[in-house]
Amino acid sequence: MSSPPASPAPPPPVAADTQDAPRDPFDTPLFHRLLGLIEKQNETIEEQKATMDEQKKTLKEHGTKLDALVKDAQKDDQPYDDEAQPLRSEQLWSGVYEIASAKMKEEAEEWKGLMDVSLVFIAIFLAVLTAFLVPAAQALSPTPNGAGSNSTSPPPPLPPKSDQNVCAFYYLSLIMAMCNAVLCVLGRQWVGKMLSRPVGKTHKERTMRHEARKNLAYGWIKPLVAVLYWSLLLSIGLFIAGLLYQLRNLSTSFDQTAPILETTWGIGILLAALIVATVAATTIHAIRFESSPFEGNLSKFVVRILQRLEERWEWIKKWRVSVHSEGLEGVEALFKTSMELIAEANDPKLLDRVAPSFSYDAWLLFGEGSIEVLARAYDRLMASDTSTRVRETVKAQISRFAKKCREYPGWAQSRLKVNDLRDFLHDRYPISSNFPAWATIFSLQENNEDLRKIGALPADECVAELLCTYDQDRQLGDRFKIFKEAVIRCNSLVRDGNENDVMQILSHVDRLSVVGSFMRVPDLCFYSPDDFLRFLVRDRRTDILLHVNEFLKDPPSNVSHQNVSYILNALFSPAFPLPLPLGIDFSPIIAFVSHRPHWSSWDRVSDSLTLYLSQCDLTILSDSTSVLRFLQLCVDTEFRDEDGDLYETTDEARTRARDILNICLPNLTQLPPSCPSSPSPSLACALLDSPSLIEEPSEPSRAVVESLMAQRTQATSRRFSTSSVHIEMTTLA
Question: pLDDT at position 509, please?
Answer without folding.
Answer: 92
